[in-house]
Amino acid sequence: MTFVGCGSGTVSTTVQSTTVNTETTTNETTTAEALSTVTTTSQINEIEGIDLNNLEYVRWFGRTLYNDTENLKYFYFTASGFEAAFYGTELKVILKASNYELNKQAYLVVFLDGEEDPTKAETLVLDEEEKEYTLASGLELGLHSVKLLKRSEASDSVVALKKVSTDGHFTEVSEPKNFKIQFIGDSTSVGYGNLGSLAELKTTANSDGLRAYAYLTGYLLDAKISIFSASGWGVSRGYNTGGSISETENIPNAFDYYAIDNTNKVFTEAGKWDHDNFVPDVIVVNIGVNDFNSAGYDVMNSLDRVDLEYQYYLDYTAFLVKLNNLYPDALIIAAFRFINVQSGLVDTTLEIINEANRLIGETKVHAFEVEAAGTLGNDYGCDYHSNIGTNKNIAQSLAEFINSLTGKEIIRTMID
Predict the structure, then answer these.
(1) Contacts (Cβ under 8 Å, ≥6 apart) of 162
(2) I want to staple 43 with a disulfide (CB 3.0 to 4.6 A). Which of 47, 116, 169, 398 is the partner?
(3) How many whole angstroms separate alpha carbon 257 and alpha carbon 137?
């Protein structure tokens, strides 16, 4: 089995052409006839296989992977997906989902013609293992673009693109945004239960990662973002490990690989991720809550708690230094207090930031304390997580903080 990774991507130069009828139209031109007159044999209306890596026609977001045994292009995390531009009236895709059962179904969002606001886009729910979906139809004949992004997280369902097609022909997709932000986090970064309430269990239906603080921060700043986040995961341990310290199933180790997959494990089969595929200007890290809030913490004796805190201190400090080594030109923001758990986490995190900066030799890591869930008049989401109101507040504050550090302007107002 062979994999081809893609961040900035591997460009294929052998796109398979599909010939479209080119007969002449009359004054009473039908849409189909009009399409045929503007399409030549050198233009294409279907993209599949290795040609899904062709960045002239398909722009990818987040960490992606092409499997040339299955002829599928996988995308994993929240806000990952693709954009295609075309001349025509419709766009269709064939998608595969690793999980399509109720409460775990992948939820995606369809953006049309440059729209970025998730509240002005359409939701797509994947209800079969493999199926053709119409993303846009009945459009006025002309140039259009469609962007498809996951709003659910990788541990619920992984999605793959098999084919994209239009009734017209594909055109060159827009240039990528210059300013890049890498988000590394846990449940709050992916919108865990932010549409729900304390009375509800978390599902993919009541979780919207495109209305969580990470995506919304990128929206305000018009930044290209990549999210590497998984609910329940921590620096040294988490809900995913049953509360046990793990050297492998943690965010710092997982970050070196492509993804955390739908089995809620580090996806190692494809090897390690090439960090040069996405080089951020800013890195926002939001981890640590699950180290102190997962199974067993409440019954630990004081010595075990001290040992856990020291392990967290060592591992988090090392991760921040590692991030600086990977991306020496990036600013790092260590955000904390997303959920009101043990107050010691705040002091420990500040100590970690100071130690990381000492080891780096300059101030590259910046502390950012954010609004906690269930405060300032906002209700909780599911399982005491932040609801949409809190996420919007965090995004606004974080965008302003990034502006103060980098000078990057906020060009949009917050979504409704």
Answers:
(1) 48, 71, 72, 73, 93, 94, 95, 96, 130
(2) 169
(3) 37
In whole angstroms, what is the distance from residue 385 CA to residue 404 CA? 28
The owner of tokens 């895709």 is 93
pLDDT confidence of residue 337: 76
Bridge partners of 4?
66
CA distance 136 to 111: 9
48, 4, 43: which is closest to 164 by C-alpha?
48
pLDDT value for 58 = 97
pLDDT for 346 equals 82
Measured distance CA(183)–CA(262) in Å, rounded: 19
Q: Which residue ranges of the chain lie beneath pLDDT 70?
A: 1-42, 338-344
Task: Please give the Cα distance from 395 to 334 (Å, whole number).
Answer: 14
Q: pLDDT at position 384, please?
A: 93
Rounded distance, CA 98 to CA 267, Å?
14
- Enumerate the β-bridge partners of residue 145: 85
Q: Where do the H-state alpha helices sit in 341-387?
A: 344-360
**Dihedrals phi, psi of 19, to nearest 5 degrees:** -75, 135
Phi-psi region of 49 (alpha: psi -120 to 50; beta: other; left: phi over 0): left
Angle, helix 388-406 to helix 213-221, in steps of 10 degrees: 40
Looking at residue 153, its amino acid is E
